Amino acid sequence: MADKEGHKQKKERASCFGYPVSIFFIVVNEFCERFSYYGMKAVLVLYFKYFIGWDDDLSTTIYHTFVALCYLTPIMGAIIADSWLGKFKTIVYLSIVYTIGQVIMAISAIHDITDANRDGKPDNKTLHISLSMLGLILIALGTGGIKPCVAAFGGDQFEDHQEKQRSTFFSIFYLSINAGSLLSTLITPILRSQECGIYAKQSCYPLAFGVPAALMVVALIVFVIGHKMYIMESPKGNILLQVINCIGFALNNRFRHRGKQYPKREHWMDWAEEKYDKLLIAQVKMVVKVLFLYIPLPMFWALFDQQGSRWTIQATTMDGNFGGFVIQPDQMQIVNPILIVIMVPIMDSAIYPLIKLCRINFTPLRKMTVGMVLAALAFVAAALLQLQIDETMPKFPSTSQTQLKFLNVESTSLPVVVEGQDQFMVPGFNASSEYLTLDKENVTISAGGVNDTAFLKTGTRHTVLMNAAGMRNTLDDLTEKPEQGLNAIRFVNGWENRLNVSVKSDNVHADPLDASVYLLVPHGKVNFTIFDGGDGKCHYIMQLGFGSTYTVLIPSTFAFGQTCSESFEAVQDMEPNRIHMAWQVIQYFLLTCGEVVYSVTGLDFSYSQAPSNMKSVLQAGWLLTVAVGNIIVLIVAEAGSLPDQWAEYLLFASLLVAVSIIFAIMAYFYTYIDPNEIEAKFKELEPEDKKRKEMQMTAKDNMAYVHNENTNIKQTKI
């Protein structure tokens, strides 16, 4: 009666174009949730690097720890939904946790909370780190916990006769995932690149995290609004737990019967026959057979997920100017979803049919092997690109070296002799062409014929100001590229009075024969205003690229009323990034082709080889390979001692090639099966097995009865 009423209730539900209205709430929820997740994730590694101040390795480690946790928690979510709360309550409760985590992340990025000296940098990094780690843990619990529930909950909304609508729903559902990913990867880097702050303007990470948090609030509200329209099935128990218990019992039983006196069994899972029926054991055998093939798979994900970490950091050292439109480093990740949309239909409608025409047996496992090789080639391309980038990067001093450059504030050339070096000339109102690298801290310098000693520290760079009277000042230069593709500009005052320099809201000053602090300015045309304490004012305009540093010399002959651009001399200390971000498209293309061939095929293969009631078990196993892959990255990032990034790329490529060879060998010996055929065979035998077990139980009961009767007779006689 209850089933009939439930069926009747389904028929009376509101529908639109033959679809349950409830699914529209689920699709909107998924779009907003994916926008929230991918939007936050797109800017995460740059938040670690530039806001928190971690180096590349630690930023990469924490990023991949977070991603790994996101792919470990789906198992928890599936067990909670199937065994305890049900899908609806699990989604709602974990979405609340998720939303709180996103809000905490947005709060952790507000530098004004601890910026007591109002310099635009947080003073209490510990508080910001603690908040961000708490936020990321809650986000991982939320996004991972609801991952296995939402799609399945959407499928529950359809009746048995709505198979076509259900199939269309899943297509729309996954389209909403890609749409959310695509838009968020495009929008949140733009939000991050804005400047915000109460006292000092900085990259707007609060906005970049705040918008995803707002979308998560919308996702939760939309999902809850539709609760009266949902079909909510009660928890029926989790098949994953049954599989784990069955495997555990078989292993334990085999261990207890490991002696030679016990007869061997055909398969180690047959040791579970004492407790579990043969159909379940046969199904578990099929699952274990596929899970064994999963062992090499994490290496692919170790490479794939570095798009958001190492490749994004690589993009920060490149030129992002696309015909006047600036691409942010974290926006390059958008290439992947765009190429997926393009490559999936090309593969299905052109590449695979062409291979079939060539009579090549391109089995699913062979496709996955090719996907691994393509991903390895993508990292070879990344390594080659990194080599080109490294050639354009400055050669900074090691911890045992120091570097010197000379800036002549006189109008005539002056000779310079550095201890242990040959004499060279420094042109008037200009600088020496290159830095001198020295292996000592204190060095004697003859500038303009006047000897002096410079007291320096190893691992540093300096510019020596000089005129006819000798050394006049020693300036501290930058020992790394400006962050986030900004340009560092300072002004050296060769004039007789203090001068002030302003650009946008920043104001600095330069005393005579001294330099201003560095001004960090973005790419493009920048207008500096130079003024004295009186009415003197002029404008100096520079056209800048990405990541350059300049020392602008204001000569002693300068006078207000002249054109600044003609009077000043800009000395380039570090050249701008010369390698264009467009070169990354090659590695993205190879990796995306690998993903299409590997990931789509892998899921299809897994489902085709899994029993009908154990698809979720293989889904959990697949997600687990992603988690393990990210753990591999954080181990290499922390434990690796490779000095060059290109070498690390080649290491990952080599490891994946080795793993692909192992996988190809495993695939060669794999025998494809038809799970439905095997299940049907065991279902036919099931009644006979039950009858046989009943007869065995009856025989045991009869024997026990006879034994008891004999015992009673003996006791009576006694």
From TrEMBL:
The keyword Chloroplast does not apply. GO terms for biological process: dipeptide import across plasma membrane; protein transport. It is found in: Apical cell membrane; Cell membrane; Membrane. The chain crosses the membrane at residues 35-54, 66-85, 91-110, 131-153, 173-191, 203-225, 286-304, 334-355, 367-387, 585-605, 617-637, 649-673. It is a multi-pass membrane protein. InterPro entries: MFS_trans_sf, POT_fam, PTR2_symporter_CS. PROSITE patterns: PTR2_1, PTR2_2. SUPFAM superfamilies: MFS general substrate transporter. It comes from the Eukaryota. Keywords: Cell membrane, Glycoprotein, Membrane, Peptide transport, Protein transport, Symport, Transmembrane, Transmembrane helix, Transport. Its main location: membrane. One of its GO terms (molecular function) is symporter activity. It catalyses: carnosine(out) + H(+)(out) = carnosine(in) + H(+)(in); glycyl-sarcosine(out) + H(+)(out) = glycyl-sarcosine(in) + H(+)(in); glycylglycyl-L-isoleucine(out) + H(+)(out) = glycylglycyl-L-isoleucine(in) + H(+)(in); glycyl-L-glutamate(out) + 2 H(+)(out) = glycyl-L-glutamate(in) + 2 H(+)(in). One of its GO terms (cellular component) is apical plasma membrane. Belongs to the major facilitator superfamily. Proton-dependent oligopeptide transporter (POT/PTR) (TC 2.A.17) family. Electrogenic proton-coupled amino-acid transporter that transports oligopeptides of 2 to 4 amino acids with a preference for dipeptides. Transports neutral and monovalently charged peptides with a proton to peptide stoichiometry of 1:1 or 2:1. Primarily responsible for the absorption of dietary di- and tripeptides from the small intestinal lumen. Mediates transepithelial transport of muramyl and N-formylated bacterial dipeptides contributing to recognition of pathogenic bacteria by the mucosal immune system. This is Solute carrier family 15 member 1. The lineage of its organism: Eukaryota, Metazoa, Chordata, Craniata, Vertebrata. The gene is slc15a1b.
